[in-house]
Amino acid sequence: MKHHKIIVAGIGPGNEADITPAVIDALQEADVVVGYKYYFRFATPHLRPETECIDTGMKRERARAEQAFKLAEQGKTVCVISSGDAGIYA
């Protein structure tokens, strides 16, 4: 049985070179990535083909968190992405 899991990851300031190996691992592990659509351009090269991406819109942090919890409760591994410091922005 798969466990519920939410990973919060900061993809950096917008340059491929700034994405850390830990974030790449998180993206590759995810069943679903939740975030603002602009950030998917940086995440997509690291995703498995079947990984779902859900855009919650800009400044929708609460909706993003609620969506992540709903998906995790369904047994999915969810990666919530943001730019910069994920501890602040995600």
SS field, number of helical segments: 4
Q: Tell me, briefly, the overall form.
A: globular
Numbering strands along the chain, what is their spatial order in the largest sheet?
Answer: 1-4-2-3
Which parts are unreliable, with pLDDT below 50 for 5 consecutive residues or more? none
SS-based class: alpha/beta
Question: Mind summarizing the main beta sheet?
Answer: 4 strands, parallel
Instruction: From the alpha carbons, calculate the radius of gyration and give it in angstroms.
Output: 12 Å
Termini separation comes to: 27 Å
Helix content: 25-40%
Order of helices and strands: EHEHEHEH
> How much strand?
15-25%
Mean pLDDT value: 88
Q: Quick one: how many beta strands?
A: 4
Layout: helices, strands, pairs:
Elements: E1 5-10, H1 21-29, E2 32-35, H2 40-43, E3 52-55, H3 61-73, E4 77-82, H4 86-89
Parallel strand pairs: 1-4, 2-3, 2-4
Report on this structure.
The chain has four helices and four strands; from the N terminus they run βαβαβαβα. The protein is an alpha/beta fold and 90 residues long. The longest helix is centred in the last third of the chain and has 13 residues, at 61-73. The protein is globular, with a radius of gyration of 12 Å.
